[in-house]
Design goal:
Layout: H1 2-7, H2 21-28, H3 39-52, H4 54-57, H5 60-65, H6 88-101, H7 116-119, E1 125-126, E2 129-130, H8 135-140, E3 147-148, E4 156-157, H9 162-174, H10 178-201, H11 205-208, E5 215-218, E6 221-224, H12 232-239, H13 241-250, H14 279-284, E7 295-296, E8 302-303, E9 316-322, E10 333-343, E11 348-358, E12 368-369, H15 373-398, E13 403-407, E14 414-419, E15 424-433, E16 439-449, E17 454-458, E18 467-476, E19 481-482, E20 487-496, E21 509-512, E22 521-526, E23 531-538, E24 545-550, E25 553-557, E26 564-565, E27 568-571, E28 576-582, E29 590-593, E30 607-615, E31 627-632, E32 635-641, E33 645-651, E34 659-664, E35 677-680, E36 683-685
Antiparallel strand pairs: 1-2, 3-4, 5-6, 7-8, 9-10, 10-11, 11-12, 13-14, 14-17, 15-16, 15-18, 18-20, 19-20, 21-29, 22-28, 23-26, 23-27, 23-29, 24-25, 24-28, 30-33, 30-35, 31-32, 31-34, 35-36
């Protein structure tokens, strides 16, 4: 009540409010400048917001995106007094506090009046001079990069805008070295703290109704520059941080996911000014400040100024309260200004709040003052829960991209990417991650994927990689389509590369193209044991090449050759072997690999190249629709149609080879009938055993 009594003797408003740029700059240069919620309040609000966001609620989301877990104590901040080895929440909290201490004059860029010029908006403006950049422009940089002429370094860019956070997110996914990715992710977390600081400042009425204010400590005494322009509300919330923290545990504002589609709409709604949806709009259009309070007409109706049309006359009303101040002032009273608080997001009436208390000097131009505990108490009940919700909402908006990556083939070359969030349009990149954490770019492509849609993608990933990472940058939903200007949204998805199949041992690994059905080969598998692996490749009369790689290192490279070669290589248990054959057209070849430390088992008997053809007795075909399958020693070796012929390497002498054939012709039938016959090395052969001579 003492504060109410003191308000009666406040001096009238004078031109002192219209401070010049020079005076404001001088004041801002003083130590311990406060130009928004106090630092401890920003820290508390940010930690509450992080606790309600994906950062805490869905920590697994970040691991699945290719980032470190937010709870890891590995992050380090940037700037004076920056914490080291902390989790993401603590680093965001530091960013939210350091946004005021980055350099003194930066606080000018923390103001935004959404009602100016019928909703166009403005930054801090004093005496018709633009004193600062609009808070959304500085915090987001969604329309371009801004520089501050009043920074210590002339032309200094912010470096901690949402644009910068997006770039840090991208670098934290795609950088080759784990240390560089960790540094980028640390900067991303801190930068998000800087950004939500601005959202929280939009929940302070002075910051959205163009009322400059500051206070500084000189020899332990709080000095206000200019007089009557201090922020009682900021000091009030700071003094009650512990109580307010408990209050916010039980009082929350619900902002449904997807309600706000762009980062700028967390501040204001450009398409719908005066909607009381964004944080700045809600505060500016529901509350007043000392220098922007309404006038009182003869009929007792509060009339807003033309500069701040909301809250309007229909939104405010007066109550007269008696003041017992000395016995020689009988009947003295004050007007208490109340407002009806409206939520534009849910189109709901939230209740009434005390907006200001009449000064004794009202009739001399004093107006209403808001530096009263009762006013501050009513304010924070509406503003702080919403500040937390909008801060959490902006954090989740930044991470709104949601992709999952799943292997669709055993060899790890076919993948399914599913978009679990809003539409994606931009650039999709794939990176391979080795066991030591190093990442390498594999491919890049223009990309569009609708919400809830899956895409089948072929990715040329080598078996030496442990994981495959998909990185998207561009437009996600309604925002981020400014790749050319450097403002984009980011999403990631990571998955393990399927383990290579294990070849059966003992025995040889047979890779056979003696049927000529597949010209090239690219296969990855593991062998059993360790030791020297022997190979034997028969290319017959037409050159082919063999390349064998282990852990991205080539151990065999024959080049193109005809006939047979027998290279060998060393193998260690658990390694993946990649075998590639580059063939000429649909050429024939046959490749055997021994088990490690063992000789070629299937090559004990010498082999001879055998020519097998299918013809009729005159050497020509009677019908073009004929086809044949040739079975040798119980396995199908040859298949074809028309005047097909094949080469196959078979053991010579010793036990005879059994042969079985089947075929068709519209008029006749089996191969050993008049429609066609099987020839081995030019000699007709009926179904049955035969020896290779």
């Amino acid at each position: 009540m003492l504060s109410n009594i003191l308000n009666l003797f406040d001096a009238p408003k004078v031109c002192a409010w219209c401070i010049s740029r020079r005076l404001l700059a001088l004041a801002l240069a003083a130590p311990a400048v406060a130009f928004g919620y106090e630092e401890s309040t920003h820290a508390m609000l940010t930690e509450k917001a992080a606790a309600r966001s994906k950062v805490v609620q869905r920590a697994g989301f970040f691991l699945a995106s290719g980032l470190r877990s937010p709870s890891d104590l590995v992050y380090s901040g940037i700037g004076s007094g920056a914490p080291l080895q902390v989790d993401a929440v603590k680093l965001m909290s530091f960013g939210a506090t350091w946004e005021d201490g980055f350099y003194p004059a930066i606080a000018r860029n923390h103001f935004f009046d959404p009602q100016f010029q019928n909703g166009i908006g403005r930054g801090l403006q004093v005496a018709f001079l633009r004193e600062g950049l609009a808070s959304p422009d500085w915090a987001l940089e969604d329309t371009g990069v801004f520089t501050d002429p009043d920074s210590p370094n002339v032309g200094q860019v912010h470096g901690f805008s949402l644009r910068d956070a997006g770039e840090a997110f991208y670098v934290a996914l795609k950088s080759p070295l784990p240390g560089d990715r960790l540094a980028a992710q640390s900067r991303m977390w801190q930068t998000l703290g800087h950004v939500v600081h601005h959202v929280q400042d939009m929940a302070q009425p002075q910051h959205v109704r163009n009322e400059p204010h500051l206070h500084t400590d000189i020899l332990g005494v709080t000095v206000v520059v200019p007089p009557k322009s201090r922020s009682f509300y900021e000091l009030y919330t700071q003094s009650l941080n512990v109580q307010l923290s408990s209050f916010l545990e039980t009082h929350s504002y619900t902002l449904a996911p997807g309600t706000i589609r762009t980062a700028r709409q967390f501040f204001r709604t450009p398409s719908a000014p005066f909607s009381r949806r964004g944080m700045a709009e809600f505060t500016a259009e529901n509350f007043v400040t000392t220098t922007t309070s309404p006038a009182l007409t003869t009929g007792g109706v509060p009339v807003p100024s033309s500069e701040f049309p909301l809250p309007g006359s229909a939104d405010m009303y007066f109550r007269q309260m008696p003041v017992l101040l000395l016995k020689f002032f009988p009947g003295l009273h004050q007007n208490y200004l109340y407002g009806r608080i409206v939520d534009g997001v849910n189109n709901a009436y939230l209740g009434d709040a005390l907006l200001g208390i009449e000064s004794l000097w009202f009739r001399l131009g004093g107006g209403y003052v808001d530096d009263d505990p009762a006013v501050a108490n009513d304010r924070h009940k509406f503003l702080l829960p919403r500040a937390v919700a909008f801060s959490a909402g902006l954090i989740d908006h930044f991470f709104r991209g949601s992709m999952t990556l799943v292997s669709a083939s055993s060899d790890g070359k076919q993948w399914t990417l599913t978009n679990g969030g809003e539409d994606l349009e931009g650039i999709l990149e794939f990176y391979g991650e080795q066991a030591d954490g190093q990442r390498s770019l594999l491919s890049q492509q223009g990309f569009f994927l609708g919400s809830g849609v899956s895409a089948a993608l072929a990715v040329p990933i080598a078996p030496s990689y442990a994981r495959l990472l998909a990185v998207f940058k561009g437009r996600i939903g309604a925002e981020g389509n400014s790749l050319g200007r450097g403002y984009y949204s980011v999403a990631g998805a990571i998955a393990a590369v399927p383990a290579a199949p294990v070849a059966s041992c003992p025995g040889d690994v047979l890779l056979d193209n003696s049927m000529g059905t597949n010209s090239n080969l690219d296969m990855t598998f593991q062998l059993v044991g360790s030791g020297t692996v022997q190979t034997a490749m028969e290319n017959y009369s037409i050159p082919d090449s063999l390349t064998i790689s282990i852990a991205n290192s080539v151990v065999v490279n024959t080049g193109m050759f005809a006939g047979e070669q027998r290279p060998s290589f060393e193998y260690r248990s658990g390694q993946s072997v990649r075998v590639q054959v580059q063939a000429t057209s649909s050429d024939l070849w046959n490749l055997r690999l021994s088990c490690p430390g063992q000789g070629l088992q299937g090559d004990a008997v010498p082999k001879k190249l055998v020519s097998i053809t299918v013809t009729n007795p005159t050497g020509a075909f009677l019908c073009s629709g004929a086809f044949w399958d040739i079975w040798i020693d119980g396995s199908i070796h040859l298949t074809g149609s028309g005047s097909s012929g094949w080469f196959v390497r078979l053991s010579a002498g010793g036990e005879p080879h059994s042969v079985r054939s089947s075929g068709s012709c519209p008029s006749i039938g089996a191969l050993n009938q008049t429609a066609g016959q099987l020839n081995v090395n030019g000699q007709p052969l009926s179904n049955g055993p035969f020896l290779v001579r």
